[in-house]
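Task: sequence in, structure out. Protein: SGNH/GDSL hydrolase family protein.
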Amino acid sequence: MRFVAIGDSFTEGVGDELPDGLVRGWADLVAQGWANAVGKPVEYANLAIRGKLIEPIVEQQLEPALALHPTHLSFNGGGNDMLRPRTSIEHVADLFMHVLRRCDEEGVKLIALSGANPSAQLPLRRLIQRRGDVLSAAVAERLADRPDVITAWNWPDRELSTPGYWSADRLHMNPRGHHRVAARVLTSVGQKPPTDWWSLPELEDAGLRGAAYYRAHVLPWVQRRLKGTSSGDGRAAKYADWVEVTPQRV
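Result:
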């Protein structure tokens, strides 16, 4: 089994920070859960980089990922595009089909994901909800006649959209959220996740409120938009080549 993941912060694992400062996230959890479930090592790579729009994900990550000759490739993108008013949702959905075509050509099984829905906690929540609904529906419609594609639709999950699954910035899932997504992906590939991954105990709410939240999280995002920079600038993929994930006793 050779599993490679491409995408943005959702797939890199932002919000699920480990004590050493590295991030884990749902894809890392899937690799470990998969190895545990089958009782064999899983080869795993993760080329996702935070802040990436969907075109750079496809242009910069897809071909290097396919060059690794995986058996399975997971793809999610468009969350950062969705926050930009001029984004063409149809174009984003079309890029999902491009990824599928390349996977078909290379004999790779595609795992298509929709991102989780952060809108309830964010400014401009109605706009984000509406655009996310349209994007989620557009991708699902494109893939409706391909039952062979593995899908893990997280956007419609109302439980996952509640505050207890989100980190202090309200835009990225916390460890609890990443475990729930990992449980959905493992289920979609025919493996049984640990039952508690669906809803780990709630974490202490350390989030900021009011103006403090805007200064800490919204203002830096706005400044990056104005400067044309990204939180992922200068960052490399955390697992650009295969790492072996061995089964653990649970």
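The domain at 2-208 is CATH 3.40.50.1110 (Rossmann fold).
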